Amino acid sequence: MIVFRVIQAIAGSADYPTAMAILAFTFPPGKQRAQALGIWSFAFAGAAVFGPLIGGPLIDNFGWRSVLLINLPVGLYMAIHYVEESVSERATVVFDWWGAILLGTSLSALVLVLDKGVDWGWLSASSLWSYAVIVLSALWFYYVEKTIRNRLSILNFSKIKYSS
Q1: Nearest 5°: phi and psi at 155?
Q2: Domain assignments of the chain as residue spans, ordered by start
Q3: Which residue from 19, 20, 22, 164 lies 20 to 30 Å from 11 (Cα-Cα)?
Q4: Helix (H, G, I), strand (E, B) or coil at 131
């Protein structure tokens, strides 16, 4: 159960920026995109409020599997009917493994020291090692991202075709 909860947390953390990217791709800049992001933000905030409110009684009365009776059909319906597949004009040739590993290392060390800093002591050897890992992996990440050859131009949105 714990392993699947970890998988759910990873997928959930990937869902937030992915949803924003889909909205940014689907809606042109301006009023339409602002409205779409506003509706999405409202739905995300509403899910944080109503999820436990509805999920608690469901789990208490029918078990944890009953949550899937709501999330799975609604999610599948929404994905099938409203999410169009986006295809980039410029395909990524290689996944940036070094960037992913270095950023993950830096952020993991940051979370670790923020979580354990009180227990360890903020200036203990463990905390100081964590600070060193954070700084070194972040600097190495910056260097790798500045020198990588297959860099996507994140700020150049002029070549993106928006669906209508």
Answers
A1: -90, -5
A2: 2-82, 97-147
A3: 164
A4: helix
CA distance 67 to 52: 10
Q: Is this prediction's pTM over 0.85?
A: no
Output the pLDDT for position 138: 94
Report helix, strand or coil for 52.
helix
Q: Which two tokens stand for residue 4?
A: 């699947």
* Residue 133, number of CB atoms within 10 A of its CB: 17
* Residue that the structure tokens 């986006």 belong to: 86
Using CA atoms, how far apart are residues 110 and 138, in angstroms rounded to an integer?
10
Contacts of 10 (CB under 8 A, 6+ apart): none
Q: Which residue carries 């800049």 as its tokens?
A: 29
DSSP 151: -
Residue 43, both tokens: 């739905």
Question: Residues 39, 43, 45, 49: is their CA dihedral positive or negative?
Answer: positive
Does residue 104 contact residue 111 with C-beta atoms inside 8 Å? Answer: no
Q: Could you read off the pLDDT of 10-68 as tens digits, one per residue?
A: 777 777 778 888 888 888 888 988 998 898 889 888 888 888 888 888 889 988 888 77
